[in-house]
Input
Amino acid sequence: MLPQASSPAGSPAGSHAVPRATVALGCVSGLLLAVSAYLAGALPGGDPGPGLRLGGFGAVPGSFLLGLACWLAGLAGWTVAWWRLGRTDRGGSARRVLTIGAAWAAPLLVAPPLGSRDAYAYACQGWLWRAGLDPYAMGVADGGCPWTASVPELWWHTPTPYGPVAVLLTGAATALGGLLGALAGLRLLTLAALALLALALPPLARACGVPVPAAYWLALLTPLTAVHALSAVHNDTLVAALSTTALALALSHRPRSHDDLARTVAPLPDSGVSSPQSTQDRRRGRGGAWWGAVGAGVAVAGAVGVKVTAVVAVPFVLVLLGRRWWAGAAAGVVAFVGVSAAGGLGLGWVAALRGTGELVQWSSPPTAVGMAVGYVFRLVGRGEWVDEAVTGSRALGLVALAGVGVWGLVCAWRRRGDVGAVVRACGWVMAATALLGPVFYPWYAVAPLAVLAAAETDPRRRRWVAAGAVVCAVLTLPNGLGVPVLTKAVGAFAVTGALIVAAVRSRPRARA
Output
């Protein structure tokens, strides 16, 4: 399923059945992850291993070490089962893939968050809004959120960088009462986003030439999705669902297939005129296309209203809309203005974005290069240049991102008649936006992963995307402590070295 994404959707009936051992391994792995959430996860009462960062493994209780062992075993087992499913269930049904994924993930629905404490920050931000306060002007501690102790202290005085759609939805989630009720509401919201993603993927994948089970496998069953979407309930799941929905709706004006088109315009037997029914069908099709354009505009505006980085998907949606781009653009503007007015908070979230780049971690490749250069400066006695090295490297990363964005748009425009090419360009530009920014957290990969799962047909690139999803899943420990925080120098030089090797290997070779 993973490597064979470019194979036709209708695989031969002799495809391999999913071994029971693979399904059982995934179920056990999901249970182990749920156990790790209770022992070493992002618990509401606080960090179960607060001494790990400074004191190492000897400074944490035995229960945390047991939970960490369950975390490692669960992630390893999930990854093996998931990879085997992708290789053995070629030609399997989409429903079977979803059923297996649901069985694996079921224990996570009743467990605390894993890999991040952001869920508590979301709950507090929603509480501030419901209390009549402005989460764009104050941190959760400043507004007196009763659950502030569950939020990482780093974010106590930081305004929310998320858009009005995120604030409204998290505010609604807190209406269930109490912190546990808010967490339940956020998890229901995430389940709704995953359900929307499951609905949007099939038409988009078919249009791009990717079998639906393969798209489901790569978008919904990865360990990254299990940990950072379903368990940690990150807002990026909403971005993934709404962006993918916008791309799918933008295709509504295109004929489904040559056979369907032929049936639509087929003339009556022995006559030179079209049937009244076919004319009526064409009118309905045109009406549906206009509504599809409006829906695409509203969906992509919703994605931007959750997280500003989703704006990079907007031009690709407009390219897919063709002549109806103005309807999508107008609907998106109206929807965004409307939801901003409903929230009553204006555009204060734009100013709050400045606080997101304060952390310096090697998980962002440009930041990793700047960190490595900074360590070299320290070795030669130029420690005062360290900050400038990081700032300069990040600036170069943004320049590179602009170049990738222009390249993606040019490719999409030149091949605007090829749905797969446009959507693939969108997915890779979204991936570049996540990786080349000043800060990268593993959940930033959820949205580009969903788009590429539906559009990328090259087996080699799909393998790299799948491997990247696994790496992202292990970049944090179950209690939310990031691995980059524990391995600053090692990680910075490792990422920088990997970038140098990749640049050398990708260099065109001179012909003899």
